[in-house]
Amino acid sequence: MNYVRMPDNLVQQRLDQELADVLMAISVTTNSIARHLQILNGQRKAKGVNLNDKR
After folding, report:
1. Average pLDDT over residues 7-33
2. Rg (CA), the chain
3. Which of 10, 18, 20, 54 is the most exposed place for a label (fewest CB within 10 A)?
């Protein structure tokens, strides 16, 4: 295989962009999980479930 050497600054820019993309994906996923937990908590409260019950 022939590899073309990229300038270090271009490599760093691509790595920075990839890291930013991963962090954004984590943020979106975390937000979604938090929203679902809030919904679940509301449903449990509506059913009268003891939220401190460990079962």
Report:
1. 95
2. 22
3. 54
Side-chain half-sphere exposure of 31, counting CA atoms within 13 A: 6
pLDDT surpasses 60 at 55: no
Write the pLDDT tens digit of every residue in 28-50. Answer: 999 999 999 999 999 988 988 77
Structure tokens at 14: 């691509």
Q: Indicate whether 42 belongs to any domain.
A: yes
Domains: count for the chain: 1
Structure tokens at 50: 């003891």
Structure token digits, residue 25: 């994906």
Identify the domain containing residue 37 by its residue range. Answer: 21-46
